[in-house]
Amino acid sequence: MEEQKKRSIPVLPWMRDPLDLTLFQQIPLHTLPSLHPKLKLSLENMGISNLFPVQVAVWQETVGPGKFHRDLCVNSPTGSGKTLAYALPIVQLLSTRVVTCLRALVVVPTRDLAFQVKRVFDAIASPLGLRVGLAAGQSSVADEISELVYSPECEFGISYDPEEVAFRVRRRLRSKVDILVATPGRLMDHINTTKGFTLEHLQYLVVDETDRLLREAYQSWLPAVLESVQLNEDNTFEPSDSFLPCSMGVLTTRRRCGVERGFKDKPYPRLAKIVLSATITQDPGRLVQLELHHPLFLRAGPMRYRLPENLQSFKLICERKVKPLYLVALLKSLEGEKCIIFTKSVESTHRLCKLLNCFGDLQIDIKEYSGLQHQRVRSKTLNNFRKGEFQVLVSSDAMTRGMDVEGVRNVINYDMPKYVKTYVHRAGRTARAGQTGRCFTLMSNDEVRQFKKLMQKAEASSCPEHIIQSSLIEALHSTYESALKKFKEKISKAPKKAND
After folding, report:
1. What residues does each domain of the chain span?
2. Does the pLDDT at position 261 exceed 70?
3. CATH number of the 311-493 domain
4. Spatial separation of the C-alpha atoms in residues 48 and 177, rounded to whole Å
5. Could you tell me which residues come within 8 angstroms of residue 187 by beta carbon, excluding any fewer than 6 positions away?
6. What separation in angstroms does the CA of 480 have from each of 474, 486, 487?
7. DSSP state of 136
8. What share of the chain in percent tops pLDDT 70?
């Protein structure tokens, strides 16, 4: 029913004639025009020798002939290189900056994704002298402020003269970072309460995982950002002397249309936007909130939902009561390959992980990643998974959005997703950056028809059934019964929760 409603929504005119990303070719790094030498060296140190089609297309529309004359809306499969697609041109365009001002803001929905995006920016921005900040609630607000804003007390010591303090705050508070990666909640904290935190010099706004950030309220972060940037036409301000290279010390005006008037009667760059997702929304009511400037729609092929090119999808049919048994048999058959198992909820994730760890002779390290855990625990678990310290991660859909873990060969849907969008994001944790991968979905016979419809929406040409040898299932029966008994004992001894 929800999918039918979505199909009935009219499409915005600029989305009807997209630029097809499949027409672009992967190109060697040294052939990319205008690439800064230090940026090229940074990419080579990251092991990158070629750029993917989405990265080439975005470069052409920002640094290349397009010159960012239009805002960009990018719909490209998971693992196609979208993070570097926007990070690369932003770092290139800011490489000529004179002093540090907050000029680029990247908004992402989750903390772990924010950490991941910041790592990409750090790798390519630091060699050019650009500073990258993080506002994702990884530490206290006070600690974040110290990383984002220069305090006048740090430079001149503490003063007890109120007038002198006010003067210093007005003239000396300034940004420590050129680029900020932020989650919506913590971004709003800084906009509303942090002295010296300003978006008045912002030139680039990236909205990563756009459909999720527009679907969820997130404390109305988008209107707050746009309002902070787009002051009234008659609202002039005199920049502090710490921002002289940005404004040249003249009165500056920001217009509602997003165009700034700068020095010597030359137009100051408008707020340029890049919005991205593997499953971009087509809802005009949501997209209009972004106030895009003559947007260009970049899409990989004719389908709205696309799976990674090198992904193989399989269905594994079994009765519901023996699903854990078939899952264990599947894990054994994968012979220790790195794998992510997705469930339908955080509670299911917790229970399934407990059950799997009751299999004494499984000889596979399995950890949980869900919203029931503290952020520090989740981050540590994810880091250890990246390092290869264990092979299998059981996760709720918190892991589906944008997260990149190198070496994940398999994704297993323990619970079949209801919507194609969820399947696309889950499956996209493997077969990334041109690598191969497999996605297995466990289902009962009465779910096969629904799954077939789901796969048709993702333009999946085929989804064969994965057969597990009956001898392996039979050999695991006694172990399965023993694991169930241990699991029930653990559950009975665990303290009851209010919602159990």
Report:
1. 2-230+271-299, 311-493
2. no
3. 3.40.50.300
4. 26
5. 105, 107, 135, 221, 225
6. 10, 10, 10
7. S
8. 84
Task: Give CA separation, 144 vs 172, 187, 207, 376, 470, in Å.
Answer: 18, 11, 21, 16, 56
311-493: same fold as 2-230+271-299? yes
Lowest mean pLDDT among 67-76, 203-212, 247-256, 491-500: 247-256
Report the amino acid identity of residue 391: Q
What does residue 89 show for φ and ψ, rounded to 5 degrees? Answer: -65, -35
- Nearest alpha-carbon partner for 108 in 210, 22, 15: 210
Torsion of CA 60, 64, 67, 72, to 10 degrees: 10
280 pLDDT above the threshold of 70? yes
Q: 105 has which bridge partners? A: 180, 205
Sign of the four-CA dihedral 292, 297, 300, 301 = positive
**74-116 pLDDT, tens digit each:** 999 989 999 999 999 999 999 999 899 999 999 999 998 999 9
Q: Greater confidence, 342 or 301?
A: 342
Report the candidate in 325, 227, 339, 301 with the shortest Cα–Cα distance to residue 459: 301
pTM: 0.84
DSSP for 217-266, please give it.
Answer: -GGGHHHHHHHHHS--TT-EE---GGGHHHHTTS-EEE-TTS-EE-GGGP
Structure tokens at 415: 């619970």
**Could you give the CA distance from residue 71 to residue 358 in angstroms, rounded to a whole number?**
52
**Rg of the Cα trace of the chain?**
25
Are 12 and 282 in contact by the 8 Å Cβ rule? The answer is yes
- CA dist 190 and 137 (Å) reads 11
Please state, in angstroms and as integers, the Cα–Cα distance from residue 70 to each residue in 94, 108, 283, following that order: 18, 22, 20
More confident residue, 374 or 170: 374
Query: Is residue 83 within 8 Å of 208, Cβ to Cβ?
Result: yes
**423 CA to centre of own chain:** 16
Residues near 381 by beta carbon (within 8 Å), at least 6 away in sequence: 367, 368, 369, 373, 393
Mean pLDDT, residues 364-388 taken together? 91
Determine the residue type at 227. E
| Token couple for 227 | 């309002």
- pLDDT at position 266 is 38
- The letter for the amino acid at 126 is S
What does the alpha-carbon distance between residue 397 and residue 402 come to, in Å, rounded to a whole number? Answer: 11
| Whole-number Å distance between alpha carbons of 380 and 384 | 6
**Closest-CA residue to 83 (of 370, 424, 388, 428):** 428
Cα-based distances in Å from 422 to 136, 151, 162, 435: 24, 44, 55, 21
Write down the pLDDT at residue 160: 53
Indicate the pLDDT class of residue 215, thresholds 50, 70 and 90.
confident
Instruction: Say if residue 153's pLDDT is above 60.
Output: no
Q: Which CATH superfamily hosts domain 2-230+271-299?
A: P-loop containing nucleotide triphosphate hydrolases (3.40.50.300)
